[in-house]
Write a structure and sequence with these properties.
Elements (H helix, E strand, L loop, with lengths): L18 H6 L4 E3 L5 E3 L19 E6 L4 H13 L4 E5 L2 H4 L23 H8 L8 E7 L3 H14 L8 E5 L1 H8 L1 E2 L3 H18 L3 E7 L1 H5 L4 H21 L4 H6 L1 E7 L3 H21 L10 E6 L11 H15 L4 E3 L14 H17 L13 H18 L6 H4 L2 H18 L25 H17 L3 H14 L6 H11 L4 H8 L7 E2 L10 H6 L1
Parallel strand pairs: 3-4, 3-11, 4-5, 5-6, 6-8, 8-9, 9-10, 10-11
Antiparallel strand pairs: 1-2, 7-12
Helix pairs in contact: 2-4, 4-5, 5-19, 5-20, 9-11, 9-14, 11-12, 11-14, 12-13, 18-19, 18-20
Amino acid sequence: MSQIPPYDSDPFPLPSLEEWPKAAGHSLEWSSHDGLKLSALYHQGPLAPAARTAARPWLIREDFSHTIPAVVGKSVRASLEGGATTVGLWQDQAGRRGWDPDQSEADNLVGRGGISISTVPDLRTALDTYPWNSHSLHLEVGASGAPMLGILVGLAIERGADFPRLSATVGCDPLGELARAGRLDWELDDLYREAATGFLYAREFCPNVRVMSVNTEAYHEAGATSVQELALGLATGLEYLRKLQAHGLKPAEAARGLAFSWSVSGDLFTQVAKLRAARGLWNRLLGLFGVTEPDRVSFFHARTGLATHSWLDPHSNLLRSALAGFAAVLGGADSVEVAPFDRHLEHAGNDPDAARLARNQQLLMLYEAQLHRVKDPAAGSYYLEQLTQELASRTWADLQELELPAALLDGRVARLLAETGHNRRERVSDGLDVLVGVNRYPLQPPPQPPVSFDQPAMQADRREHMGRVRNGRDGGDVAHRLNRVASVAGSLDPALIDAVAQAARVGATLGELTRAIRKPAVTALEIPPIERRCLAHPLEVRA
Protein backbone atom coordinates (compact mmCIF):
# COMPACT_ATOMS: atom_id res chain seq x y z
CA MET A 1 0.00 0.00 0.00
CA SER A 2 1.32 3.47 -0.88
CA GLN A 3 2.90 5.53 1.94
CA ILE A 4 1.85 8.78 0.26
CA PRO A 5 -0.59 10.61 2.56
CA PRO A 6 -3.98 11.87 1.34
CA TYR A 7 -3.82 14.95 -0.87
CA ASP A 8 -5.70 17.16 1.58
CA SER A 9 -3.53 16.25 4.59
CA ASP A 10 -0.97 18.69 6.03
CA PRO A 11 2.09 16.72 7.19
CA PHE A 12 4.13 19.85 7.95
CA PRO A 13 3.47 22.12 10.92
CA LEU A 14 2.60 25.68 9.98
CA PRO A 15 5.15 28.11 11.48
CA SER A 16 3.98 31.42 12.86
CA LEU A 17 4.82 34.77 11.26
CA GLU A 18 7.28 35.43 14.10
CA GLU A 19 9.14 32.15 13.47
CA TRP A 20 9.93 32.78 9.80
CA PRO A 21 12.54 35.56 10.29
CA LYS A 22 14.22 33.53 13.03
CA ALA A 23 14.47 30.54 10.73
CA ALA A 24 15.82 32.69 7.88
CA GLY A 25 18.35 34.39 10.16
CA HIS A 26 17.51 37.87 8.91
CA SER A 27 14.62 40.24 8.32
CA LEU A 28 12.22 39.34 5.53
CA GLU A 29 11.48 42.98 4.73
CA TRP A 30 13.14 45.56 2.46
CA SER A 31 12.25 48.81 0.71
CA SER A 32 11.63 49.41 -2.99
CA HIS A 33 12.93 52.43 -4.93
CA ASP A 34 9.43 53.84 -4.39
CA GLY A 35 10.05 53.71 -0.65
CA LEU A 36 7.46 50.96 -0.19
CA LYS A 37 8.03 48.39 2.52
CA LEU A 38 8.11 44.95 0.91
CA SER A 39 8.30 41.52 2.44
CA ALA A 40 9.11 37.97 1.43
CA LEU A 41 6.09 36.75 3.37
CA TYR A 42 2.50 37.98 3.26
CA HIS A 43 -0.69 36.86 4.95
CA GLN A 44 -4.37 37.51 4.50
CA GLY A 45 -5.48 41.11 4.86
CA PRO A 46 -8.20 43.51 3.65
CA LEU A 47 -9.24 43.29 0.00
CA ALA A 48 -9.15 46.22 -2.42
CA PRO A 49 -12.18 47.08 -4.59
CA ALA A 50 -12.36 45.23 -7.90
CA ALA A 51 -10.07 46.67 -10.58
CA ARG A 52 -12.82 46.46 -13.22
CA THR A 53 -16.57 46.53 -12.90
CA ALA A 54 -16.94 43.52 -15.20
CA ALA A 55 -14.90 40.86 -17.01
CA ARG A 56 -14.64 42.34 -20.50
CA PRO A 57 -11.97 43.23 -23.06
CA TRP A 58 -10.08 46.45 -22.55
CA LEU A 59 -9.70 48.90 -25.43
CA ILE A 60 -6.48 48.44 -27.39
CA ARG A 61 -5.32 51.96 -28.12
CA GLU A 62 -2.59 53.23 -30.39
CA ASP A 63 -1.43 56.83 -30.03
CA PHE A 64 -0.09 58.97 -32.86
CA SER A 65 2.25 61.92 -32.57
CA HIS A 66 3.50 62.31 -36.15
CA THR A 67 3.80 65.85 -37.41
CA ILE A 68 1.38 66.08 -40.33
CA PRO A 69 -2.18 64.77 -40.71
CA ALA A 70 -1.53 63.02 -44.06
CA VAL A 71 1.00 60.65 -42.49
CA VAL A 72 -1.30 59.99 -39.54
CA GLY A 73 -4.25 59.08 -41.79
CA LYS A 74 -2.36 56.18 -43.34
CA SER A 75 -1.07 55.00 -39.97
CA VAL A 76 -4.53 55.11 -38.35
CA ARG A 77 -5.95 52.95 -41.10
CA ALA A 78 -3.15 50.39 -40.65
CA SER A 79 -3.65 50.45 -36.88
CA LEU A 80 -7.35 49.59 -37.06
CA GLU A 81 -6.76 46.90 -39.65
CA GLY A 82 -4.02 45.52 -37.38
CA GLY A 83 -6.22 45.08 -34.32
CA ALA A 84 -6.41 48.41 -32.48
CA THR A 85 -9.89 49.22 -31.18
CA THR A 86 -9.31 52.92 -30.50
CA VAL A 87 -6.73 55.56 -31.39
CA GLY A 88 -5.33 58.65 -29.72
CA LEU A 89 -4.18 61.79 -31.50
CA TRP A 90 -1.80 64.15 -29.71
CA GLN A 91 -1.76 67.78 -30.75
CA ASP A 92 1.67 69.34 -31.10
CA GLN A 93 2.93 71.91 -28.63
CA ALA A 94 1.65 74.80 -30.74
CA GLY A 95 -1.85 73.34 -30.97
CA ARG A 96 -2.00 72.51 -27.26
CA ARG A 97 -1.39 76.20 -26.58
CA GLY A 98 -4.12 77.25 -29.02
CA TRP A 99 -1.85 78.59 -31.77
CA ASP A 100 -1.90 78.06 -35.53
CA PRO A 101 1.35 77.02 -37.25
CA ASP A 102 1.71 80.44 -38.91
CA GLN A 103 1.40 82.44 -35.67
CA SER A 104 4.65 83.96 -34.41
CA GLU A 105 4.03 82.45 -30.96
CA ALA A 106 4.23 78.96 -32.51
CA ASP A 107 7.87 79.27 -33.60
CA ASN A 108 9.82 76.09 -32.80
CA LEU A 109 6.68 74.41 -31.39
CA VAL A 110 5.00 73.18 -34.58
CA GLY A 111 5.30 69.41 -34.92
CA ARG A 112 6.91 68.92 -31.54
CA GLY A 113 5.29 66.31 -29.36
CA GLY A 114 2.33 65.70 -31.65
CA ILE A 115 0.39 66.43 -34.81
CA SER A 116 -0.20 69.86 -36.27
CA ILE A 117 -4.02 70.03 -36.45
CA SER A 118 -5.64 73.43 -36.96
CA THR A 119 -8.77 72.88 -39.07
CA VAL A 120 -11.60 70.47 -39.79
CA PRO A 121 -9.81 69.33 -43.01
CA ASP A 122 -6.68 68.59 -40.95
CA LEU A 123 -8.67 66.34 -38.61
CA ARG A 124 -10.52 64.81 -41.55
CA THR A 125 -7.20 63.90 -43.18
CA ALA A 126 -5.82 62.43 -39.96
CA LEU A 127 -8.91 60.28 -39.35
CA ASP A 128 -9.60 59.55 -43.02
CA THR A 129 -12.09 56.62 -42.98
CA TYR A 130 -12.35 56.34 -39.20
CA PRO A 131 -15.41 54.26 -38.13
CA TRP A 132 -17.11 56.85 -35.94
CA ASN A 133 -20.12 54.77 -34.92
CA SER A 134 -18.17 51.72 -33.72
CA HIS A 135 -14.81 53.00 -32.40
CA SER A 136 -13.97 55.55 -29.72
CA LEU A 137 -11.41 58.29 -30.18
CA HIS A 138 -9.05 60.18 -27.88
CA LEU A 139 -7.71 63.69 -28.56
CA GLU A 140 -4.93 65.03 -26.32
CA VAL A 141 -5.54 68.77 -26.66
CA GLY A 142 -3.74 70.55 -23.82
CA ALA A 143 -5.22 73.20 -21.58
CA SER A 144 -8.34 74.09 -23.56
CA GLY A 145 -10.90 71.70 -24.98
CA ALA A 146 -13.57 73.95 -26.52
CA PRO A 147 -11.81 74.70 -29.85
CA MET A 148 -10.92 71.06 -30.59
CA LEU A 149 -14.26 69.82 -29.30
CA GLY A 150 -15.90 72.17 -31.80
CA ILE A 151 -13.61 70.98 -34.62
CA LEU A 152 -14.42 67.37 -33.70
CA VAL A 153 -18.17 68.10 -33.65
CA GLY A 154 -17.89 69.87 -36.99
CA LEU A 155 -16.23 66.85 -38.57
CA ALA A 156 -18.70 64.46 -36.91
CA ILE A 157 -21.60 66.45 -38.44
CA GLU A 158 -19.91 66.32 -41.83
CA ARG A 159 -19.41 62.54 -41.53
CA GLY A 160 -22.99 61.93 -40.41
CA ALA A 161 -21.97 60.46 -37.07
CA ASP A 162 -24.68 59.16 -34.75
CA PHE A 163 -24.18 61.63 -31.88
CA PRO A 164 -25.80 59.52 -29.11
CA ARG A 165 -23.33 56.75 -30.02
CA LEU A 166 -20.31 59.00 -30.58
CA SER A 167 -17.60 57.93 -28.13
CA ALA A 168 -14.59 60.18 -27.59
CA THR A 169 -12.39 61.90 -25.06
CA VAL A 170 -11.28 65.46 -25.70
CA GLY A 171 -8.48 65.52 -23.16
CA CYS A 172 -8.62 69.07 -21.81
CA ASP A 173 -6.14 69.08 -18.91
CA PRO A 174 -5.18 72.62 -17.78
CA LEU A 175 -3.04 71.59 -14.79
CA GLY A 176 -1.41 68.75 -16.71
CA GLU A 177 -0.49 71.15 -19.50
CA LEU A 178 0.87 73.64 -16.97
CA ALA A 179 3.06 70.87 -15.52
CA ARG A 180 4.15 69.73 -18.98
CA ALA A 181 4.84 73.12 -20.57
CA GLY A 182 5.57 75.21 -17.49
CA ARG A 183 3.29 77.97 -18.76
CA LEU A 184 -0.34 78.83 -19.43
CA ASP A 185 -1.29 81.86 -21.50
CA TRP A 186 -4.95 81.76 -20.42
CA GLU A 187 -6.80 82.35 -17.19
CA LEU A 188 -7.57 79.11 -15.37
CA ASP A 189 -11.08 80.30 -14.54
CA ASP A 190 -11.81 80.80 -18.26
CA LEU A 191 -10.54 77.30 -19.04
CA TYR A 192 -12.70 75.72 -16.33
CA ARG A 193 -15.79 77.60 -17.50
CA GLU A 194 -15.23 76.39 -21.08
CA ALA A 195 -14.77 72.83 -19.83
CA ALA A 196 -18.06 73.04 -17.93
CA THR A 197 -19.71 74.32 -21.12
CA GLY A 198 -18.35 71.28 -22.95
CA PHE A 199 -19.80 69.00 -20.26
CA LEU A 200 -23.21 70.62 -20.70
CA TYR A 201 -23.02 70.20 -24.49
CA ALA A 202 -22.01 66.55 -24.17
CA ARG A 203 -24.81 65.87 -21.67
CA GLU A 204 -27.37 67.13 -24.15
CA PHE A 205 -26.06 65.83 -27.47
CA CYS A 206 -23.30 63.23 -27.07
CA PRO A 207 -23.33 61.64 -23.60
CA ASN A 208 -20.46 59.26 -24.41
CA VAL A 209 -18.00 62.09 -25.00
CA ARG A 210 -15.65 62.91 -22.12
CA VAL A 211 -14.47 66.51 -21.98
CA MET A 212 -11.61 66.56 -19.44
CA SER A 213 -8.74 64.27 -18.58
CA VAL A 214 -6.02 63.94 -15.96
CA ASN A 215 -2.70 62.91 -17.48
CA THR A 216 0.19 62.04 -15.15
CA GLU A 217 2.79 61.58 -17.89
CA ALA A 218 4.80 64.69 -16.97
CA TYR A 219 5.16 63.54 -13.37
CA HIS A 220 6.00 59.95 -14.27
CA GLU A 221 8.71 60.99 -16.72
CA ALA A 222 10.17 63.39 -14.17
CA GLY A 223 10.87 60.38 -11.94
CA ALA A 224 7.84 60.41 -9.62
CA THR A 225 7.35 57.46 -7.34
CA SER A 226 4.08 55.55 -7.58
CA VAL A 227 2.75 57.34 -4.49
CA GLN A 228 3.70 60.75 -5.90
CA GLU A 229 2.08 60.01 -9.26
CA LEU A 230 -1.10 58.79 -7.59
CA ALA A 231 -1.29 61.79 -5.28
CA LEU A 232 -0.69 64.33 -8.06
CA GLY A 233 -3.16 62.65 -10.41
CA LEU A 234 -5.91 62.34 -7.83
CA ALA A 235 -5.33 65.86 -6.52
CA THR A 236 -5.77 67.11 -10.09
CA GLY A 237 -9.00 65.15 -10.43
CA LEU A 238 -10.23 66.62 -7.14
CA GLU A 239 -9.50 70.17 -8.30
CA TYR A 240 -11.38 69.55 -11.55
CA LEU A 241 -14.37 68.18 -9.65
CA ARG A 242 -14.45 71.25 -7.40
CA LYS A 243 -14.22 73.70 -10.30
CA LEU A 244 -16.87 71.90 -12.36
CA GLN A 245 -19.16 71.75 -9.32
CA ALA A 246 -18.64 75.50 -8.83
CA HIS A 247 -19.90 75.97 -12.41
CA GLY A 248 -23.11 74.10 -11.69
CA LEU A 249 -22.31 70.49 -12.57
CA LYS A 250 -23.24 67.68 -10.24
CA PRO A 251 -20.22 65.65 -9.06
CA ALA A 252 -21.64 62.48 -10.66
CA GLU A 253 -21.92 64.28 -14.02
CA ALA A 254 -18.38 65.58 -13.70
CA ALA A 255 -17.05 62.11 -12.81
CA ARG A 256 -18.67 60.51 -15.87
CA GLY A 257 -17.10 63.08 -18.17
CA LEU A 258 -13.61 62.77 -16.69
CA ALA A 259 -10.87 60.38 -17.83
CA PHE A 260 -7.57 59.52 -16.15
CA SER A 261 -4.40 58.58 -18.01
CA TRP A 262 -1.82 56.84 -15.83
CA SER A 263 1.72 55.97 -16.89
CA VAL A 264 2.97 52.49 -16.04
CA SER A 265 6.47 51.03 -16.01
CA GLY A 266 7.85 47.50 -15.99
CA ASP A 267 7.92 47.31 -12.17
CA LEU A 268 5.17 44.73 -12.53
CA PHE A 269 3.66 44.21 -9.09
CA THR A 270 3.94 47.83 -7.96
CA GLN A 271 2.26 49.04 -11.14
CA VAL A 272 -0.59 46.55 -10.82
CA ALA A 273 -1.11 47.71 -7.25
CA LYS A 274 -0.87 51.37 -8.31
CA LEU A 275 -3.75 51.10 -10.76
CA ARG A 276 -5.86 49.12 -8.30
CA ALA A 277 -5.16 51.71 -5.60
CA ALA A 278 -6.04 54.53 -8.01
CA ARG A 279 -9.46 53.03 -8.69
CA GLY A 280 -10.21 52.47 -5.01
CA LEU A 281 -9.01 55.90 -3.94
CA TRP A 282 -10.96 57.71 -6.64
CA ASN A 283 -14.12 55.81 -5.69
CA ARG A 284 -13.57 56.84 -2.08
CA LEU A 285 -13.05 60.48 -3.05
CA LEU A 286 -16.21 60.49 -5.17
CA GLY A 287 -18.05 59.14 -2.15
CA LEU A 288 -16.94 62.21 -0.19
CA PHE A 289 -18.65 64.30 -2.88
CA GLY A 290 -21.87 62.39 -2.34
CA VAL A 291 -21.61 60.31 -5.52
CA THR A 292 -23.37 56.98 -5.02
CA GLU A 293 -21.68 53.70 -5.93
CA PRO A 294 -23.42 53.13 -9.31
CA ASP A 295 -22.40 56.62 -10.49
CA ARG A 296 -18.72 56.36 -9.56
CA VAL A 297 -17.78 55.78 -13.17
CA SER A 298 -14.62 57.43 -14.46
CA PHE A 299 -12.54 56.15 -17.35
CA PHE A 300 -9.04 54.84 -16.56
CA HIS A 301 -6.49 54.69 -19.38
CA ALA A 302 -2.95 53.38 -18.92
CA ARG A 303 -0.02 54.02 -21.23
CA THR A 304 3.41 52.46 -20.94
CA GLY A 305 5.73 55.18 -19.68
CA LEU A 306 9.02 56.20 -21.22
CA ALA A 307 11.01 56.84 -18.03
CA THR A 308 12.93 53.56 -18.37
CA HIS A 309 13.31 53.67 -22.18
CA SER A 310 16.66 54.40 -23.79
CA TRP A 311 18.13 54.70 -27.28
CA LEU A 312 21.26 52.87 -26.07
CA ASP A 313 19.47 49.54 -26.64
CA PRO A 314 16.07 50.41 -28.15
CA HIS A 315 14.89 46.84 -28.68
CA SER A 316 15.04 46.21 -24.93
CA ASN A 317 12.27 48.81 -24.70
CA LEU A 318 10.02 46.28 -26.42
CA LEU A 319 10.32 43.96 -23.42
CA ARG A 320 9.87 46.81 -20.94
CA SER A 321 6.65 47.82 -22.69
CA ALA A 322 5.43 44.22 -22.60
CA LEU A 323 5.82 44.10 -18.81
CA ALA A 324 4.20 47.51 -18.38
CA GLY A 325 1.30 46.58 -20.67
CA PHE A 326 0.78 43.35 -18.71
CA ALA A 327 0.68 45.38 -15.48
CA ALA A 328 -1.85 47.79 -17.00
CA VAL A 329 -4.20 44.96 -17.96
CA LEU A 330 -3.91 43.18 -14.61
CA GLY A 331 -4.43 46.52 -12.87
CA GLY A 332 -7.81 46.96 -14.55
CA ALA A 333 -7.27 49.76 -17.08
CA ASP A 334 -10.25 50.44 -19.36
CA SER A 335 -7.91 51.12 -22.26
CA VAL A 336 -4.19 50.49 -22.72
CA GLU A 337 -1.59 51.94 -25.04
CA VAL A 338 1.70 50.06 -25.38
CA ALA A 339 4.32 52.45 -26.73
CA PRO A 340 6.45 51.28 -29.67
CA PHE A 341 10.06 50.65 -28.71
CA ASP A 342 11.17 53.79 -30.57
CA ARG A 343 8.55 56.16 -29.08
CA HIS A 344 11.10 57.92 -26.84
CA LEU A 345 13.02 59.17 -29.89
CA GLU A 346 11.97 62.65 -30.95
CA HIS A 347 9.64 62.44 -33.92
CA ALA A 348 9.63 58.64 -33.93
CA GLY A 349 6.53 56.69 -34.79
CA ASN A 350 6.80 56.24 -38.53
CA ASP A 351 8.13 52.68 -38.24
CA PRO A 352 5.18 50.36 -39.03
CA ASP A 353 7.05 47.34 -37.69
CA ALA A 354 7.55 48.97 -34.27
CA ALA A 355 3.86 49.92 -34.16
CA ARG A 356 2.78 46.40 -35.15
CA LEU A 357 4.92 44.78 -32.45
CA ALA A 358 3.42 47.11 -29.85
CA ARG A 359 -0.15 46.27 -30.95
CA ASN A 360 0.56 42.57 -31.06
CA GLN A 361 1.68 42.58 -27.43
CA GLN A 362 -1.85 43.51 -26.45
CA LEU A 363 -3.45 41.19 -28.98
CA LEU A 364 -1.49 38.28 -27.49
CA MET A 365 -2.66 39.22 -23.98
CA LEU A 366 -6.27 39.42 -25.20
CA TYR A 367 -6.64 36.52 -27.61
CA GLU A 368 -4.02 34.03 -26.44
CA ALA A 369 -3.63 34.73 -22.72
CA GLN A 370 -7.32 35.76 -22.49
CA LEU A 371 -6.64 38.11 -19.61
CA HIS A 372 -10.02 39.76 -20.08
CA ARG A 373 -11.85 36.67 -18.82
CA VAL A 374 -11.26 37.62 -15.17
CA LYS A 375 -12.59 40.84 -13.68
CA ASP A 376 -9.69 41.37 -11.27
CA PRO A 377 -6.84 38.85 -11.77
CA ALA A 378 -4.88 40.24 -8.82
CA ALA A 379 -7.73 39.90 -6.31
CA GLY A 380 -6.95 37.69 -3.33
CA SER A 381 -3.16 37.72 -3.72
CA TYR A 382 -1.89 38.49 -0.23
CA TYR A 383 1.11 40.32 -1.70
CA LEU A 384 -0.80 42.47 -4.19
CA GLU A 385 -3.67 43.19 -1.83
CA GLN A 386 -1.33 44.46 0.89
CA LEU A 387 0.79 46.36 -1.63
CA THR A 388 -2.39 47.99 -2.94
CA GLN A 389 -3.42 48.93 0.60
CA GLU A 390 0.00 50.39 1.42
CA LEU A 391 0.01 52.48 -1.76
CA ALA A 392 -3.51 53.67 -1.02
CA SER A 393 -2.71 54.54 2.61
CA ARG A 394 0.43 56.49 1.76
CA THR A 395 -1.26 58.29 -1.14
CA TRP A 396 -4.19 59.30 1.06
CA ALA A 397 -1.75 60.81 3.57
CA ASP A 398 -0.08 62.81 0.78
CA LEU A 399 -3.46 63.94 -0.55
CA GLN A 400 -4.32 65.43 2.82
CA GLU A 401 -1.29 67.72 2.50
CA LEU A 402 -1.45 68.45 -1.25
CA GLU A 403 -3.40 71.29 -2.84
CA LEU A 404 -3.33 72.03 -6.55
CA PRO A 405 -2.60 74.31 -8.28
CA ALA A 406 -0.85 75.89 -5.25
CA ALA A 407 1.82 73.17 -5.04
CA LEU A 408 2.60 73.66 -8.74
CA LEU A 409 2.71 77.43 -8.54
CA ASP A 410 5.02 77.67 -5.53
CA GLY A 411 7.47 75.12 -6.95
CA ARG A 412 6.92 72.38 -4.37
CA VAL A 413 6.06 69.79 -7.03
CA ALA A 414 9.07 70.72 -9.16
CA ARG A 415 11.44 70.52 -6.17
CA LEU A 416 10.01 67.20 -4.99
CA LEU A 417 10.25 65.58 -8.42
CA ALA A 418 13.69 67.05 -9.10
CA GLU A 419 15.01 65.36 -5.97
CA THR A 420 13.25 62.06 -6.66
CA GLY A 421 14.27 62.00 -10.34
CA HIS A 422 17.88 62.90 -9.55
CA ASN A 423 18.16 60.13 -6.96
CA ARG A 424 16.67 57.54 -9.33
CA ARG A 425 18.94 58.56 -12.21
CA GLU A 426 21.97 58.44 -9.92
CA ARG A 427 21.09 54.92 -8.85
CA VAL A 428 21.00 53.84 -12.50
CA SER A 429 24.21 55.72 -13.27
CA ASP A 430 25.98 54.05 -10.31
CA GLY A 431 24.65 50.61 -11.25
CA LEU A 432 22.57 50.21 -8.09
CA ASP A 433 19.40 49.88 -10.18
CA VAL A 434 19.73 47.83 -13.34
CA LEU A 435 18.49 48.80 -16.80
CA VAL A 436 19.29 45.89 -19.08
CA GLY A 437 21.13 47.02 -22.20
CA VAL A 438 21.99 50.35 -20.58
CA ASN A 439 24.09 49.85 -17.45
CA ARG A 440 24.16 46.03 -17.57
CA TYR A 441 24.79 43.85 -20.64
CA PRO A 442 24.97 46.86 -23.02
CA LEU A 443 24.67 46.55 -26.76
CA GLN A 444 28.07 46.38 -28.48
CA PRO A 445 28.98 48.45 -30.34
CA PRO A 446 26.65 51.14 -28.96
CA PRO A 447 24.24 52.64 -31.51
CA GLN A 448 24.56 56.13 -32.90
CA PRO A 449 22.62 58.88 -31.08
CA PRO A 450 19.24 59.66 -32.67
CA VAL A 451 19.02 62.46 -35.22
CA SER A 452 16.45 65.19 -34.60
CA PHE A 453 13.86 65.83 -37.28
CA ASP A 454 13.95 68.97 -39.40
CA GLN A 455 11.45 71.05 -37.44
CA PRO A 456 12.07 74.37 -39.27
CA ALA A 457 11.35 72.77 -42.64
CA MET A 458 8.19 71.14 -41.33
CA GLN A 459 7.00 74.41 -39.80
CA ALA A 460 7.63 76.26 -43.07
CA ASP A 461 5.54 73.64 -44.88
CA ARG A 462 2.68 74.04 -42.41
CA ARG A 463 2.83 77.83 -42.72
CA GLU A 464 2.44 77.54 -46.48
CA HIS A 465 -0.46 75.15 -45.91
CA MET A 466 -2.19 77.65 -43.61
CA GLY A 467 -1.76 80.35 -46.23
CA ARG A 468 -3.59 78.18 -48.76
CA VAL A 469 -6.32 77.51 -46.19
CA ARG A 470 -6.90 81.20 -45.55
CA ASN A 471 -6.88 82.08 -49.26
CA GLY A 472 -9.31 79.31 -50.17
CA ARG A 473 -12.18 80.16 -47.84
CA ASP A 474 -14.92 82.77 -47.66
CA GLY A 475 -13.37 85.30 -45.30
CA GLY A 476 -16.62 87.15 -44.73
CA ASP A 477 -18.46 83.98 -43.71
CA VAL A 478 -15.63 82.99 -41.39
CA ALA A 479 -15.65 86.42 -39.73
CA HIS A 480 -19.42 86.23 -39.29
CA ARG A 481 -19.20 82.82 -37.66
CA LEU A 482 -16.34 83.89 -35.39
CA ASN A 483 -18.41 86.88 -34.22
CA ARG A 484 -21.13 84.42 -33.28
CA VAL A 485 -18.58 82.42 -31.25
CA ALA A 486 -17.44 85.57 -29.45
CA SER A 487 -21.02 86.56 -28.66
CA VAL A 488 -21.74 83.36 -26.71
CA ALA A 489 -18.25 82.94 -25.19
CA GLY A 490 -17.86 83.75 -21.52
CA SER A 491 -21.12 82.10 -20.51
CA LEU A 492 -22.19 78.58 -19.60
CA ASP A 493 -24.17 78.21 -22.82
CA PRO A 494 -23.77 74.88 -24.69
CA ALA A 495 -24.49 76.88 -27.85
CA LEU A 496 -20.81 77.88 -27.69
CA ILE A 497 -19.70 74.44 -28.87
CA ASP A 498 -22.21 74.46 -31.73
CA ALA A 499 -21.05 77.94 -32.74
CA VAL A 500 -17.42 76.77 -32.72
CA ALA A 501 -18.35 73.74 -34.82
CA GLN A 502 -20.18 75.85 -37.39
CA ALA A 503 -17.26 78.29 -37.63
CA ALA A 504 -14.80 75.43 -38.01
CA ARG A 505 -16.88 73.89 -40.80
CA VAL A 506 -16.54 77.04 -42.95
CA GLY A 507 -12.77 77.24 -42.40
CA ALA A 508 -12.07 78.93 -39.05
CA THR A 509 -8.76 77.76 -37.63
CA LEU A 510 -7.81 76.60 -34.15
CA GLY A 511 -5.99 79.84 -33.39
CA GLU A 512 -8.90 81.97 -34.60
CA LEU A 513 -11.39 79.95 -32.58
CA THR A 514 -9.22 80.22 -29.48
CA ARG A 515 -8.96 84.01 -29.78
CA ALA A 516 -12.72 84.31 -30.36
CA ILE A 517 -13.50 82.28 -27.24
CA ARG A 518 -11.18 84.06 -24.83
CA LYS A 519 -8.51 86.68 -24.44
CA PRO A 520 -5.00 85.82 -23.27
CA ALA A 521 -4.25 86.30 -19.60
CA VAL A 522 -2.84 89.70 -18.68
CA THR A 523 0.09 87.85 -17.14
CA ALA A 524 0.93 84.35 -18.26
CA LEU A 525 0.87 81.69 -15.54
CA GLU A 526 4.37 80.27 -15.18
CA ILE A 527 5.79 77.67 -12.81
CA PRO A 528 9.26 76.35 -12.04
CA PRO A 529 10.00 73.79 -14.77
CA ILE A 530 9.44 70.10 -14.11
CA GLU A 531 12.48 68.39 -15.55
CA ARG A 532 11.52 65.32 -17.60
CA ARG A 533 14.45 63.00 -18.24
CA CYS A 534 14.60 59.26 -18.66
CA LEU A 535 16.44 57.29 -15.98
CA ALA A 536 19.20 56.43 -18.45
CA HIS A 537 19.87 60.10 -19.26
CA PRO A 538 23.30 60.39 -17.51
CA LEU A 539 24.57 57.35 -19.41
CA GLU A 540 23.07 58.55 -22.71
CA VAL A 541 24.86 61.89 -22.34
CA ARG A 542 28.20 60.10 -21.88
CA ALA A 543 27.65 57.79 -24.88
